[in-house]
Amino acid sequence: MRFEAITIKDIALALGLSTSTVSRALRDSHEISPETKEKVLSYAKENNYKPNPIALSLKEKRSSSIGVLVSEIANSFFSQAINGIESVAQEKGYNVIIAQSKEYFDREVSSMQFLASRSVDGILFSVSAETSDFTHIQQLYNRGMHMVSFDRTVSFGDIHKVSVDNFKAAYEATTLLINNGFNNIACIANASFLSITMERVEGYKAALKDHSIPIIEENIGFCSHGGLIYEEVEEILNKKMLGIHKPDAILACSDKITTNTMRYCQVHKISIPQEVGLLGFSNLDLTDLLSPSLSVVRQPAYEMGRIAAELLINQIASKRPVTQFNNVVLPAELHQRDSTRKK
Amino acid sequence: MRFEAITIKDIALALGLSTSTVSRALRDSHEISPETKEKVLSYAKENNYKPNPIALSLKEKRSSSIGVLVSEIANSFFSQAINGIESVAQEKGYNVIIAQSKEYFDREVSSMQFLASRSVDGILFSVSAETSDFTHIQQLYNRGMHMVSFDRTVSFGDIHKVSVDNFKAAYEATTLLINNGFNNIACIANASFLSITMERVEGYKAALKDHSIPIIEENIGFCSHGGLIYEEVEEILNKKMLGIHKPDAILACSDKITTNTMRYCQVHKISIPQEVGLLGFSNLDLTDLLSPSLSVVRQPAYEMGRIAAELLINQIASKRPVTQFNNVVLPAELHQRDSTRKK
DNA sequence: CTAATTTACGCAAACGATACCGGTTCATTT
DNA sequence: AAATGAACCGGTATCGTTTGCGTAAATTAG
Q: How many structural domains are present in chain B?
């Protein structure tokens, strides 16, 4: 037994009408008599008629679904962002179809193609750690796909973007470390070409400069695969912690890097904040329960998801082609806790 | 400019063939000459032809998409499970459409209706904390919707189920607490009628019984809204911790309850494990970095998602109606850490 | 009372792809 | 030489819905 719903044809047959009359009655057309309307409407209600969205999609050339492409779902920042996206989509009657790149460029390309081929009306995306080339995105975009870039945004111009003020967040985080007495601060960031990486590293550098602290390039590390696996972060931290300029504090520039750095310190018995201070970007909601409690930059992930989804759906629903592109920049929150408080 | 893809009709027109010939050529039918096939195939490749999945869905009466209904995406267990589901779906060419109940019965019903009305081919679900009545699920199921129940399973019979051995997990967790010298153990669980709650509480009780420890009903608390918000857990813990039988250990029976219990102890300055031991179900991957490091029951969430998705997709693809229903029960992992080690 | 207009509905095409039912060539068999 | 049968391809209905157009009956205007 297959799952089958009642169709307009069934209603027409049952009531001795044509499908077009039924269709118009359901859409409350003026050229259907009140009595017929009433008959159709009540019959439809009784039999729980729901228009077939697939037939509608074929006809209207739109699917009422949006795709979301992120590097990893099981990541507090992205799952919160998806949460926001889903809430807006639900309100506006859209499906959310999710796909993951797992930080691989190839998987990003194929996932995006997958979404496009599944006729989503638009795509919300945050690029993978391996993505420095945006042609696959731009091609899709130029062919008319509605797209909104969030978090790790793209460099080309005419597209809505939603992110936090990464420069300011990193600047203030670094300043906090400096004000707490740390002066040899390492910065472990994501892949070097990502927007968030460049902005955060710039904020880090600017804070050092404004406090007359020399910028040491060896103090900056990049995780070319997003710090997704522990070993990647370990390798980079080994270079810093066993190097000549052993830092007295670390600024960890993403969720995964932060937790993996914490793990590194535990594994290698490096005490925080005595031996090294730690401040990380993180959206976990129990960073205050960690040992030590962790100073963090928290991004408004849920809000970012909501805004990005609203921009996308508005763009999809807009009659005229959109020419005004927003670059929404939200403030991040800085929470000071024990991991940056020298005894 | 709208996003438009090339269709079979375009190919037919360009090559001076009929749509049916093109269709057959693309599907490698034997009744198309090799030359024609070659022409069609190369033209299709050149112009990046992708069959329109919506048209296919309408014709074949299947959408190649599955729905996932969970209480909350931003929850480590569910995001990992969705991760597993998505990986299988990707392999088999299915979309994953997600919906959240937020632990509300009403939202579960409407979300499930939403998924059904969007013509998903099947639904993977874990019921909300408020769901004691399964008629909305059973109705959909009886109308022929393919469904697989995971984690918080349903009570009716003929349906695939995937879960962990909750009884055993709770039994062993409780036994660990007992063996570590705790003997007045509170159990804070999810809503009382959920499968996972009943099984875990039974496991807890059985362990007490087997160790000749009396079962005190006041030591058992239920979070009727899943412990999603802190205040709910706080209220229940207040009753236990300020009551007559103040427990010396707590078994927290879900992700959210575990972290909120930990938060409670911090807020109320209750030292773990000195004043109270804590062992919780949790799928966070930094419970070892908490203060103190947390003893946990960890569920194979990714694996559960994979298995559930495979069962569902196999059922969808099956020609004959499925009569054999699996009840997959996986083992959970018990990790002993400091939160259960009395000094 | 005729002519014009309105009302209320049906017919059929369209969206993209598939599949059944034919039909037209040739080559092979009796 | 006629019949059979592959081989190859086109026409068309179909999925469920919307919509432009056509048209009969009913109403109104002149």
A: 3
Percent of chain A with pLDDT over 70: 99
**CB contacts, 8 Å: B259 with chain A:** 285-286, 289
- The separation, in Å, between residue B31 CA and nucleotide D1 C1' comes to 29
A309 with A258, same domain: the answer is no
- Any domain includes A252: yes
CB contact under 8 A, A80 and B65: no
Per-residue pLDDT for A299 more than 60? Answer: yes
User: Strand C and chain B: which residues 27-56 have CB closer than 7 Å?
Assistant: 27, 49-52, 55-56
Does residue A63 lie within 7 Å of nucleic acid chain C, judged by its CB? Answer: no
pLDDT of amino acid B1: 41
Question: What does the DSSP assignment read for B297-341?
Answer: EE--HHHHHHHHHHHHHHHHH-SSPP----EEEEPPEEE--GGG-
Q: A276: buried, middle or exposed (CB in 10 Å: 19+, 13-18, 0-12)?
A: buried
Task: Please tell me which of the candidates B1, B52, B144 has its beta carbon nearest to residue A119.
Answer: B52
Q: Which nucleotides of D are covered by protein (CB under 7 A)?
A: 7-12, 14-20
**Chain B residues inside the 8 Å CB shell of A145:** 3
CA distance A270 to chain B (A): 13
Say if residue B114 is in the same domain as residue B217. no
Buried b (16+ CB within 10 A) or exposed e, A95-129: bbbbbbbbbbbebbbebbebbbebbbbbbbbbbbb
A313: CATH: 3.40.50.2300
Tell me how close the Cα of B214 comes to any Cα of chain A, in angstroms.
33
Average pLDDT, chain B: 93
Do B135 and B77 reside in the same domain of the chain? yes
Nucleotide nearest to A36 (CA to C1'): C8
Find the mean pLDDT for residues B207-218.
96
Shared domain check, B134 and B103: yes
A81 and A229 both lie in a single domain: no
Q: What angle do CA B304, B307, B312 make, to 5 degrees?
A: 120
Look up the domain containing A14 and give its range.
8-51
Q: Are residue A171 and residue A290 in the same domain, yes or no?
A: yes
Residue A1 domain-assigned (yes or no): no
**B173 beta carbon to strand C: under 7 Å:** no
- Kindly state whether residues A257 and A316 are assigned to the same domain: no
* Nucleotide at minimal C1' distance from the A56 CA: D17
The answer to the question of residue B2 being in a domain is no
Tell me what the pLDDT averaged over chain A comes to.
93
B86 and B43 in a common domain = no
Q: Which chain A residue has the Cα nearest residue B263?
A: A289
User: Cβ contacts (< 8 Å) between A292 and chain B: which residues?
Assistant: 291
Contact assignment for A86 to B97 by CB distance below 8 Å: no
Q: Do B3 and A143 touch (CB under 8 A)?
A: yes
- Whether B58 sits with its Cβ under 7 A from any strand D atom: the answer reads yes
Interface test with B, best of A78, A104, A118, A298 (most B CBs within 10 A): A118
User: pLDDT by residue (tens digit) across A131-165?
Assistant: 999 999 999 998 889 999 999 999 887 899 999 99
Domain assignment of residue A212, yes or no: yes
Determine whether the distance from the CB of A214 to the nearest atom of strand C is below 7 Å: no
Rounded to whole angstroms, the Cα distance separating A117 from B4 reads: 10
